[in-house]
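Reader question, answered in our methods column.
A reader sent in the components of a multi-part assembly and asked whether the whole thing could be modeled at once rather than chain by chain. We filled in our standard form and ran it. Here is what they sent:
COMPLEX SIZE: two components
ENTRIES:
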Amino acid sequence: MKHLLAATALLAASALLFFAASAAAQSARTDRAAIANGESVYLTLGCQACHGTVGHGGAARRLAPGTLPLDAFLAWVRNGTPGWSFAAGMPAFPATVVSDADLADIRSYLASLPPPPPIADIPLLAE
Amino acid sequence: MDESPKAGVDRRSFLTGAATGAAATLLAQQTSIAGAQSSATAEPSVQASATGRPASDFMVDIFKSLEMEYMFSMCASSFMGIHESVLNYAGNKSPQSITCTHEEISVAMANGYAKIEGKPVLVCAHATVGAQHAAMALYDAWADRVPIYLVLGNTNDAADRQGEVFWLHSAQDPCAMLRDFTKWDDNPKSLTHFAESAVRAYKIAMTPPMGPVAIVVDEKMQEEHAPADARIPSLNVPTPPAADSGAIAEVAKLLVAAENPVILASRAARTPAGLTLMVELAEALQAGVVDSRRRLNFPTRHPLNGGSAAQADVVLALEAGDIANVARQARQREAKVISITAQHLFQRSNYQDFQRYAEVDLSIAADAEASLPALIEEVRRLTTDARREAVRQRGVRIAEANRRALEQARVDAANGWDASPVSTARLSMELWAQLKNEDWSYVTGWVNWPLRLWDFTKHHQYIGRAGAEGVGYYAPASVGAALANKRHGRISVSIQPDGDLMVAPGALWTAAKYQVPILIVMQNNRAYHQEVMWFQRAALMRNRSLDLTQEGFGLGNPNIDFAKLAESMGVGSAGPISDPKELAAAIRRGIGVVKGGEPYLIDVVTQPR
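And here is the structure of the entire assembly that came back:
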């Protein structure tokens, strides 16, 4: 009985380990997929026209590093710059153009990007 | 500015004692040209015909008298007499014929040249199809207050038109389509009339506010015989209009009493002397200078470079363009706005380059640069010792704010530093690393990073943007500016937008043919990104898709190989480069070629902005 319990416990532990590992692998895959999809959607929407391909800015605010938390990111994209118009400002992106899921993936992409090197490590900027 | 010493000694001696500042510069230039006029007749390299000297030889003598260094043109039958005289009578010197592959290139090259040299070159074109090609570049120059000297060939007399094409290439009033954005034009009826109008046109083009002029030259008149006593009228460019002493006193009083005066400048420094005067005024006041840089009005790393008109109690706007919002906000906080601009002295109605009406407190119709010497003197006179300490402390505060701004610019430039495609900040700083110890001139103005991070100290180091923001300006204007820089031994560098180059790629061929030393670094972002942003807003306002953005605004698929394009026209090249680590070597190679007197193009695939 004792052996049986031990074997059952071992089996259960193995199963847990297996499922945990599997879940981690699944999560990692999901993250990678999310990041890849996020990058693809980011470029398709043309976000880089203002924010650069790695969210570094350009004609508009920097998006990475320091990417907004998801809720704030969604609210910002959905509403755009207050008072935006045909002539100026970041436009509001409605759900018909980009889904919440894709926006979450864009945020994952931006959050995955490495920070720029410190100024001190860039001789061309250190003069 | 051309500073070649051609003036008579006595006249120069007089100037040394009698004139200062911008007026002295201008008088020296007048004297220089008057000296050239007295010996304008070229030694003919071929015999004139037995029946007399062609009128076009005399026309070329006039152009020589005006010190036209070059003739930019796409060749055409309607000004063939002049072209033949330039080549065979003048021996292709002063002016030297420079072949352009489009009239828009001719005029834009003349624009870039004028912004470096401070004077026009001769541009020739068909009065009809050539002028139509030239029109946008002419509008750019008009909006940018740049002197362009355009000669248009036309067959005025219907009886002289030899067939269908002559009729197609003739107009009753060829300058009609250009009149809204030229200062003056004429269609002379005789050679004497032509001579007067040719000199008058130069005079008008060079009088602030400067601008394009056009003269029609009848095809048949070029083939007439010049009378032996044909005479070139003397040229005297007017002294630029300066603010009167009463106005100067009022402006100085307001500025000296102000707690936080700010100077706005857009085209205030027409010449190198203007840049020096701007520094003198800012230092006398210890006031910040906000330079919107249609020219280089102020050194970029001067401690007083910067500030905010929104916080000023007195704003001095010098040839400052659109200041309607500045004036509106100033009125709300009871601040004063003073405007000095020559724009009030000459405006047209149709094209709206005069901007929104600005409700300023003191509006002075005068040339800003010409007004600066008196203003500086009056500011110095009114600044008491008691006031001086407060003024000094203001300067310290501005300098500290500017130090922080430069620091922030460096932090901002680090974002995306290693990105591929290459960031425009990285591109700019890779260039700066290899230019900073050379005599350089940044002959395009679209990418802003150099203006934030490079150390601009000389007037020729920056020539502003396209005056009317017309696409197709940068490539030819930068080649024209580089041609002007050539004899000064400067390295001209442009950061060339891809869409702009595709309008007028023939400028590359002209650069190769005439060995124009210029390093052209492509900002190849493979789309019309400015318009992408407009499209996004338009589509999203309508709740519509962005999926077809690249179909409407992309320049990829197929990607344009600018290195091959350059090679095809005789310009050495490298690229396409997407990895920023490859830039330094390519730039080193390019600068080496340019130092050898040739153009070089580096195709860099860049971030959108």
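What stands out: Chain B has three domains: 40-226, 245-401, 415-524+560-604. The CA atoms of residues 168 and 199 of chain B lie 30 Å apart.
Send us your own complexes using the same form.
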